[in-house]
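Fill in residues.
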């Protein structure tokens, strides 16, 4: 696929506007990829998935289990709350980009309340007083404005994305406070704790995986992202292949 992009680019001739128009059409076609085939790169994705799964099994999962064992539940909740509070800035920024001004005001209130009364987000005071948490990111913002998801990809070490959400995740780095920490060892330590905390938080959900692990996680990711982009207004088709019962199954 990347070779075809290079070849196509080398064949483009003409003025700069013509080159830009050609590139714009290509990106538009890519982002509007047929939803019936969201994984055209499956053969490559599966290889990367196996690599990531091995890294998780050999290194990340054991470290996360150790973190889970030595860190009391109350401390884990506090750590998770702090990282969640830092991401409120990203959510507020994307609230505004999606013209959700009421939600932006609510999320701003959450951030201020949890940062002050909640001791820098250690305690989720805002939820206790009725300010519900929202999650918005640049991938959702692009989807809100009509940008298609594009093909599903598995990124080494980082996992599941679509082309749109991968681009959005890169943009979200600039609204992540942790990326602004200038002292590199400190920044890496904070990022390391966040990775371990996130990995430890999904141990309980692993028992829900059925059938082919790659397919299950891909479909779950794509449905979750569609749900988030459309604010919950989606057609639920996840797992329908496993639950198609005929009348004879009820006899």
């Amino acid at each position: 696929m990347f070779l075809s992009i290079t070849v196509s680019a080398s064949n483009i001739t003409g003025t700069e506007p013509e080159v830009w128009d050609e590139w714009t059409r290509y990106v538009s076609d890519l982002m509007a990829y047929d939803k019936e085939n969201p994984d055209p790169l499956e053969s490559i994705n599966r290889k990367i998935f196996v690599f990531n799964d091995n890294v998780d099994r050999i290194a990340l999962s054991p470290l996360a289990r150790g973190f889970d064992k030595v860190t009391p539940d109350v401390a884990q909740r506090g750590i998770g709350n702090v990282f969640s509070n830092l991401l409120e800035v990203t959510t507020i920024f994307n609230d505004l980009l999606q013209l959700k001004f009421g939600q932006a005001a609510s999320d701003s209130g959450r951030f201020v309340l949890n940062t002050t009364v909640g001791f820098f987000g250690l305690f989720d005071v805002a939820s206790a007083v009725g300010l519900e948490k929202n999650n918005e990111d640049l991938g959702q913002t692009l989807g809100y404005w009509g940008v298609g998801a594009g093909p599903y990809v598995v990124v080494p070490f980082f996992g599941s994305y679509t082309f749109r959400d991968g681009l959005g995740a890169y943009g979200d780095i600039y609204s992540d406070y942790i990326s602004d920490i200038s002292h590199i060892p400190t920044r890496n330590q904070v990022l390391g704790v966040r990775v371990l905390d996130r990995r430890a938080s999904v141990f309980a959900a692993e028992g829900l995986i059925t059938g082919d692990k790659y397919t299950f996680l891909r479909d779950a990711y794509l449905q979750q992202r569609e749900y988030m982009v459309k604010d919950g207004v989606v057609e639920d088709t996840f797992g329908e292949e496993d639950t198609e019962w005929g009348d004879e199954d009820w006899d």
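The chain has a mean pLDDT of 86.
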